[in-house]
Design goal:
The complex is a heterodimer.
Chain A lengths: L4 H6 L5 H21 E5 L14 E5 L13 E5 L6 E8 L4 E5 L2 E4 L2 E2 L13 E5 L4 E5 L13 E4 L3 E5 L2
Antiparallel strand pairs in A: 1-2, 2-11, 3-4, 3-11, 4-9, 5-6, 5-8, 6-7, 9-10
Chain B lengths: L3 H45 L7 H9 L5 E9 L4 E5 L1 H13 L1 E17 L2 E14 L4 E15 L2 E10 L5
Parallel strand pairs in B: 1-6
Antiparallel strand pairs in B: 1-2, 3-4, 4-5, 5-6
Helix pairs in contact in B: 2-3
Classes of the chains: A alpha+beta, B alpha+beta.
Chain lengths: ~160, ~170
């Protein structure tokens, strides 16, 4: 007796055509979610309140295919690979001078308006120039001593992409 | 008795299975040293791991396990902590025993491990190390670093000769 459409949908016959189709879907999903739209679980508080510890997002790896990262972009930065990444905000670009004075971020000597920063510790960091091919990255959560926060300049080549939300 | 076509099919199938097995064996043979080196990272993670309520004797035993992981001496380079030194096995065991007391819980995990063999008996590895846990005072520990390691092959297996933390974000 022929199977109903519903039965065929939930319990398909293992025909060569079905196996081929399932394999193509699995390969497509692996390529898409493994390399283009990479799922990211957020662990840590360095981007609070924008991204909360325990949150989830996707990283679109094609974001910077045709243009360079811009100021205020939130980006994912690769470490040894792409399984664990830093999530930080671009605050200064190549050739600019960055400085923290009493918790205030100055770029080329002018204070940067950062509405996304809700917690501020009185960080102090002498001025430094962002190197060639690099951007300066800082987390949004400045409510901790400067030594406990990972931030600084990184080569643009280390940027994996941009979170989609 | 089976028809000749069925016999041929069985022979073909058996041949294909044998060829696959041979390929799989070759693959395993080619990667066996890489797996052994990766196994050292698993051993290092187990050596660092600490469960709450660890007894002092267990801590000492764990610290003594350093001889199965590190070469004598082993070089450590962690710029963000201003550490750059060659440390003897005895010193590593001492630091490990003291260091464990400062934490009530520790877990070390490695990701994205890439192994290359610059020459026979030597391995260079890059990986991401993630250390999580709690200090004795209750504060959370959450450190992530890219690391570069060198290992050398001894009669007792692979041993770490250098561990360097790479500064991905340079302040």
């Amino acid at each position: 007796m022929a199977k109903s459409r519903l039965q065929e949908f939930f319990f398909p016959s293992l025909t060569p055509k079905f196996i081929l189709r399932a394999a193509a879907v699995a390969l497509g999903a692996y390529l898409f979610f493994g390399h283009l739209l990479v799922p990211m679980f957020i662990k840590g508080r360095s981007m609070e309140p924008t991204y909360k510890d325990g949150g989830f997002t996707f990283c679109w790896t094609m974001s910077y295919l045709f243009h360079q990262p811009e100021r205020f972009d939130v980006v994912a930065v690769k470490l040894a690979g792409s399984k664990v990444v830093y999530l930080k905000r671009v605050v200064a670009l190549e050739g600019e001078e960055v400085e923290f004075r009493n918790g205030l971020l100055l770029v080329d000597g002018k204070p940067l308006d950062e509405p996304y920063v809700k917690y501020r510790f009185p960080w102090d960091l002498p001025p430094r120039k962002v190197g060639t091919g690099c951007v300066y990255l800082v987390g949004d959560n400045r409510g901790m001593p400067i030594e406990e926060h990972d931030f600084g300049q990184a080569p643009i080549s280390r940027i994996l992409g941009k979170p989609v939300w | 008795m089976q028809p000749p076509a069925a016999r041929n099919n069985k022979r073909l199938l058996a041949g294909a299975v044998l060829a696959l097995l041979a390929l799989f064996s070759l693959y395993c043979f080619a990667h066996i040293e890489e797996w052994r080196v990766k196994g050292r990272f698993k051993a290092l993670a187990e050596w660092v791991d600490k469960e709450p309520g660890e007894q002092p004797m267990d801590a000492l035993l764990k610290a003594a396990g350093a001889r199965k992981i590190f070469a004598d001496p082993c070089e450590f380079e962690i710029e963000s902590y201003k550490v750059s030194a060659k440390v003897s096995l005895q010193e590593i065991m001492g630091y490990a025993a003291k260091g464990r007391e400062r934490f009530s819980q520790l877990a070390l995990k490695f990701y994205d491990i890439t192994v290359v063999f610059p020459q026979k008996g030597e391995a260079s590895v890059t990986a991401t190390a993630r250390l999580t846990g709690k200090k004795a005072g209750g504060e959370a520990v959450n450190e992530t670093h890219e690391i570069e390691c060198n290992l050398k092959k001894t009669d007792d297996g692979w041993r770490f000769t250098k561990i360097k933390a790479v500064e991905v974000l340079v302040k």
